[in-house]
Amino acid sequence: MMWESVALCFASNHPSAEGHFPSNPIIPGALLLDEVVKLIAEMANRGGEIKIRSAKFHCLVRPGESLHVRWQPLAAGTIKFECWLIGQDALAAAGTLEIGSAPS
Length: 104
Hints:
By secondary structure, the protein is of the alpha+beta class. The protein has helices at about 15-20, 30-45, and strands at about 5-10, 50-55, 65-75, 80-85, 90-100.
């Protein structure tokens, strides 16, 4: 199966930068995952409940940085994803999602 991809950018003045962490801002992992899940669900045109099956953070993502988010459908509603820092060729995060059927 082919990988699909899209860019994701966190603004340099992102609100999370103010408190996470002062003088050394990073994008919180929960925020990064939330944005990735929303992006993949929208781009893959998939509704329903989304579960994060696994996620691993490999390097820090800072406000103002952009990510190349790519994903690949696997079997039975599972999607593998990777987030690469654009311009640094560094894997920032990777994992798998499970997208269930849309609520009835």
